[in-house]
Amino acid sequence: MDFFDLAAVFGKLESTTKRLELTDDLAKLFKEADKRDAKVLAYLCQGVLLPDFHGVEIGLGDKLTAQAIALVAGKPIKEVEASYRKSGDLGDTAASMLEKKTQQNLANSSLSVRKVYDNFYKIATSGGEGSQDTKIKLLAELLSNSSPLEAKVIVRFVTGNLRLGIAEPTILDALSTMAVGDKSLRPDLERAFNLRSDLGLVAELFINQGIEEIHKIGPEPFFPIRPALAERLESAAAIVEKLGRCAVEAKYDGFRIQVHKNGDEVRIYSRRQEPMTDMFPDVVKAVRVQIKAKQCIFEGEAIAYNDATGEFLPFQATIQRKRKHGVAAKAEELPIKLFAFELLYADGKDLTQLAFKERRRRLEKIVKKGDVIAPADYILVKTGAELEKYFDTCVGAGLEGIIAKDLKAPYTAGARKFAWIKFKRSYRGALADTIDAVIVGYYEGKGKRTKFGFGGVLTAIYDEENNRFRTIAKVGSGFDEKEMAQYKEMLDKILVKEKPANVDSIIGADYWVKPQFVVTLNADELTRSPMHAAALGKLPHKDEGLALRFPRLVQLRTDKTAKDATTEREILELFELQKRASSIVEGGE
Ligand code: ATP
C-alpha cells in the first residue's frame, strides 16, 4: 500500500473536525490495504510504532531531523533552521524545502507504508556508536522518495508531533465500518482492545480472521489491560442508594500499577501501559515471594511510606520512584507498599467477567502475608452512615478517601463506570473533585512576575469522542517562584506557532504549546462562562461553556498523557453533581 494514501488521511485530519468523514476515509484505507499491512497501518494511525507497553519510541530530535532535511534538499543546515524558526513546524519546513527536489523524484518511486514503517522502526531501535548517522540516513532515504505531503507527515511522525494520531475510538469505528458498513462491531472490537491494549493486534486478527477470532481474545500475561476507572457521586447516601450493599476500599493516593506474572518472570506496567518493571525491583522480588499463582495479572496502588513511622507519604514522594537512574538508592529511601485491589487473570482463567466479590475473594487467596504486598483495606457496608464512618477513618489515616465497589459488577476495562465510585472529601457546595487538565498555552507574567516571563497557563479538558481539547481555565495561582521558572522551561520546549488544530479556545494565549502536560487543578466550583470552550453547545445556553472558578495548581501529573485528562463528559457530570450538592446545602440538610 502507498504511504501517500495514509499521508492524505493525516492531511485531512488537520483540516477537518468531521469525525464521520474521517471514519469513512479510514475505513476505505483499511479496505484497500494489503491484509498483511493491517497491523502496521493501525499503529501508524495511532501515531506510534508499537503499543506503549513495548517502550519503543521514535522521538528523533529536531537537530538530527533538520540534518536529514538539509542533506536531501542539498542546502546548508542553517537554511533549514532559519526556515524552521519562521514556520514553527519542522514538517512544514520539510515540505517546502523539499518541494522542488521531491517533484523530480515523484516519477521514479513511491513509498510503501511498509517501507516507511521499517525505516521508522530502525530509527527508533538503532543505538550505540554511529547510530546518529544511521538515523539521519534512514530518514533521508524516506524524504528523498517522498512528495511534500508525505515529507510533512514523516517529519512530524519522527519528531513526535503526530503523537496524538487519530483517536482510538475512531480507528475502531473505521474497522467496523470497513467490514459491515456501520459501527455495530465497535463494542466487540473495543472489548478486545481493552483486554490487550494492542490496536495492531486487534486490526490484524479482525481483518485476516474475522470477528469470531476477536470474540476469543482474553487477557494474557504481558499484554496490559486498560484500567477500569471510577465515577463520582455527591454523598455517601447517594453511593449506597446506587449500589445497595457494597464493598468500600481505602483510596490510597499513590501510583497505580498492573503486575503481570508468568512463572518467575514479572513485569510491571503503569496506568497508561508504560513498562515500569525496572523501576520497582522491590515489587518484582515481592511478587515472586508473596504471590501464590503461577500466572496472574493483578492491579494495585503502590505508595511510598516512611519506614520509621509507618506513615504513608504524599503522591509527590511516591512519584519520585518513577525514574530510570538511581533506582536502587531511591527504593531504599522510599520503600513501597503495594495495596492490591483487583485480580484480573489467574492460572489461565479470565476473571474480568466475574463479580467483584468473587474477584476479591480470589485475590485474598493468592496473596501470602509479607512486607510489601497486601490486599487493599476493605469493608462491606449497608448504609450511608457506615460508609461515611469508614470514609472518616480513611481520611483520618491520611488517605485520599474511599472507592465503593459494586459487589456484582464485572471489571470494566478501559471504561469509567459506576462499578467503582470514588468519594474524596466532603463534596457539599464545592467542586466535587480535582480536575486533571492539559496545558495548551501560557501567559507572560505581569507586574511582579515579569522577571519570570511566566504568569500562568491556559488549560483544557479532553473531548474523547471528537479528539479535541477545550479550554476550561486560565490558572495563575498555585505556582511558587521555582515552579514558574520550571514550567516556563518545560513549556518552551513544546511551543507551537499557532493554536494547535485540535484545541478549541475562545480566548488567546501569549504562547501556544502542544497539548502534552497534564496538571491537577483545584477550584471553588464550575461556573457557566462565555469565555471557555469546555462543554460549549452542550448546556441549555448554547453560547456558554464551563469554566473553573478560582482555579489553582495542585501538581504536575506525570503519570497521565493528554488523553488521560478529565473528559468533557466528566465535567458535565461534575457540574450536575455540584448542582445536586448545593441543593442539599440549600435544603438545609
Ligand atoms: P484520581 O486523580 O482521583 O486518582 P484517576 O483519574 O487517576 O483519578 P479514577 O478512576 O478517577 O482515576 O480513580 C481511581 C484511582 O484511584 C485508580 O486509578 C487508582 O490509582 C486509585 N486507587 C487507590 N486505591 C484504590 C482502590 N482501593 N481501588 C481502586 N483504585 C484505587
Describe this structure in words.
By secondary structure, the protein is α+β, with helices and mostly antiparallel strands. The chain has three domains: 156 residues, DNA ligase i, domain 1 (Orthogonal Bundle); 195 residues, DNA ligase/mRNA capping enzyme (D-amino Acid Aminotransferase, Chain A, domain 1, 2-Layer Sandwich), CATH 3.30.470.30; 152 residues, OB fold (Dihydrolipoamide Acetyltransferase, E2P). It contains 22 helices and 21 strands. Strand 3 and strand 4 form a beta hairpin. The longest helix has 19 residues. The C terminus is likely disordered. The site of adenosine-5'-triphosphate has 14 residues, from strand 1 and strand 2.
DSSP helix count? Answer: 22
Q: Which structural class is indicated by helix and strand composition?
A: alpha+beta
Mean of residue pLDDT values = 91
CATH topology of the largest domain: D-amino Acid Aminotransferase, Chain A, domain 1
Determine the CATH superfamily of the largest domain.
Answer: DNA ligase/mRNA capping enzyme
Helical amount: 40-55%
Oligomeric state of the chains?
single chain
What's the CATH architecture name of the largest domain? 2-Layer Sandwich
Give the total of domains: 3
- What compounds are bound to the protein? adenosine-5'-triphosphate
**Terminal CA distance:** 66 Å
The biggest beta sheet is recorded as:
8 strands, mixed
Could you name the ranges where pLDDT drops below 50 across 5 or more consecutive residues? 585-589
Q: Quick one: how many beta strands?
A: 21
Backbone shape = globular
